[in-house]
Amino acid sequence: MTASIRDFRSGDRSDAESVVRVRRAALPFTITTPKGVAFELACAHPAKRHRILVAEGPDGRVIGTAQVGIAHDSTEPGQSYVNAYVDPAHRGLGAGRLLLRAAEEHLAAHGAVDVYAWVLDEPAHRAFAERHGYRPSRSAHFLRLDLTAAALPELPRDEDLPAGVELLPGSAFAADPRPLFEADAETTSDEPGDVAASFDDYEHWLAQTWHSPSLDKELTTVALVDGRVASFAAAQTDGATRYGSAMTGTLRAFRGRGLAKLAKTVSLHRARAAGYTEAFTGNDAGNGPMLAINEWFGYEICATETRFTKKLTKPKGRENL
Ligand SMILES: CC(C)(COP(=O)(O)OP(=O)(O)OC[C@H]1O[C@@H](n2cnc3c(N)ncnc32)[C@H](O)[C@@H]1OP(=O)(O)O)[C@@H](O)C(=O)NCCC(=O)NCCS
Question: Taking every annotated instance into account, which residue ranges of this chain make up the domain N-acetyltransferase (predicted)?
Answer without folding.
Answer: 6-158, 175-315
